[in-house]
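Hi support team,

I've been running sequence recovery on a batch of backbones for a student project. Most finish fine, but this one hangs at about 90% for roughly twenty minutes before it completes. I'm not sure whether the input is malformed or the queue is just slow. I've pasted the structure tokens below so you can try to reproduce it. Let me know if you need the job ID as well.

Thanks,
M.K.
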């Protein structure tokens, strides 16, 4: 029988899936041409200015902004599930402090999955309930991990605080100035969702095998950890520490580019003329710089951005302003990507539910370029 001959379209390689449209989605739209990001049709800038993170979570999961009763119901469910169970606390405390906090978050999600009494139920209702529980638990996990690394005792959550305020309270033991809370909440809204990015696509691939939601999220955390994706917000702060002061930015950049280094926090697979979220997050960064009186940090931020634009015309992505913003808020650098997780949990889970609503196993092809058929000697 004649061997199957591959047609030209069979063999066209789309390295990194760049430019490939693999499915439809109603969750968000990233339009590089108009430099816009819409969550369920709403511009992300308007959501960041006018909505709480809980409202945005509801929007991503349900497709519409909540009315008062719907919001109250979500808030009650989230607030009542904030306290960590003993098994989750024990799992976090059992891990070495030498491991990255993203390893802790990934393990905690896995532990929550193992203890999920509805593990076998992947109905939309069950998956919504799991998503709310993960949203409620992640701040406690992230805060517990940072505090134990600092030798601090855990702080109990408060059910009289919104998501952002409580997150800061369990991390630092107090609710900071409203300027800080607002900047943090804006970052949570901006990080929540971004169509078929690498971590969301990972979650959808796992969901497409009819695996469970916690497995999909565990995989997504692993994908987000990498410095080409969420890990870049930490790398930005490491870069700033390496450069030191604004006057050294241009020379540092020339040297880094000469050594073919990737400049973290710059560039994007989809946006080639700037990330639509950066101006909003930069405004929040400016408010923090004023609050903490740290103009030196903004000077460094601007100096590196100008030099990068001048040399390469590659613009910052969202990880560029969030890095210094989280630093000013008082988070340890390795905690930055776990903060991204605590927000993106909403987008990931919305996509898992969307994937399951019209599932098709995700299984692309590859072109074999290894040795021709041969016999074992
Ligand atoms: C929230 C987020 O996840 S946003 C992304 C966060 N990641 C980062 O900030 C990491 C740094 N950035 C990068 O590595 C890239 O810009 C990516 C991975 C985000 C996107 O990359 P791609 O779409 O694959 O573009 P690619 O890597 O092919 O870049 C095209 C060209 O620009 C260069 N380039 C792109 N980004 C950068 C950068 N940050 N520093 C230096 N050069 C860069 C590449 O070297 C390449 O140059 P070449 O054509 O001479 O080889
Ligand atoms: O869309 C991407 O490739 C990465 C990104 O900005 C995000 O996930 O927020």
């Amino acid at each position: 029988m004649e061997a199957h001959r591959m047609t030209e379209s069979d063999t066209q390689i789309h390295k990194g899936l760049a430019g490939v449209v693999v499915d439809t989605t109603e969750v968000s739209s990233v339009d590089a041409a108009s430099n816009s990001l819409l969550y369920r049709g709403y511009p992300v800038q308007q959501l960041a200015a006018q909505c709480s993170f809980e409202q945005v979570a509801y929007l991503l999961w349900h497709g519409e902004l909540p009315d008062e009763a719907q919001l109250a119901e979500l808030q009650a469910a989230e607030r009542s599930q904030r306290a960590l169970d003993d098994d989750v606390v024990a799992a976090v405390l059992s891990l070495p402090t030498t491991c990255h906090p993203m390893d802790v978050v990934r393990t905690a999600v896995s532990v929550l999955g193992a203890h999920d009494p509805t593990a076998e139920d992947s109905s939309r209702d069950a998956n919504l309930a799991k998503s709310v529980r993960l949203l409620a638990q992640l701040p406690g996990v992230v805060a517990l991990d940072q505090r134990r690394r600092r030798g601090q005792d855990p702080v109990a959550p408060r059910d009289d605080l919104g998501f952002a305020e409580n997150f800061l309270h369990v991390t630092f033991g107090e609710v900071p100035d409203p300027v800080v809370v607002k900047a943090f909440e804006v970052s949570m809204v901006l990080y929540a969702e971004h169509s078929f990015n690498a971590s969301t696509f990972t979650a959808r691939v796992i969901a497409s095998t009819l695996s469970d939601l916690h497995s999909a999220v565990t995989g997504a955390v692993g994908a987000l950890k990498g410095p080409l994706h969420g890990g870049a917000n930490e790398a930005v702060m490491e870069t700033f520490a390496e450069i030191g002061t604004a006057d050294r930015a241009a020379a540092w950049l020339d040297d880094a580019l000469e050594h073919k280094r990737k400049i973290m926090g710059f560039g994007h697979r989809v946006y080639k003329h700037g990330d639509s979220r950066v101006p909003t997050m930069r405004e929040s960064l400016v408010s923090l710089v004023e609050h903490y009186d740290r103009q030196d940090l903004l000077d460094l931020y601007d100096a590196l951005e100008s030099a990068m634009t001048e040399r390469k015309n590659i613009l910052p992505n969202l990880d560029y302003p969030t890095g210094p913003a989280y630093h000013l808020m008082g988070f340890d650098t390795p905690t930055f990507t776990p903060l991204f997780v605590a927000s993106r949990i909403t987008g990931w889970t919305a996509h898992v539910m969307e994937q399951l609503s019209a599932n098709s196993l995700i299984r692309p092809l590859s072109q074999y370029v290894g040795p021709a058929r041969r016999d074992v000697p």
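--
Follow-up from support: It reproduced on our side and the slowdown came from queue contention, not your input. The chain has two domains: 28-226+333-358, 231-328. No action needed from you.
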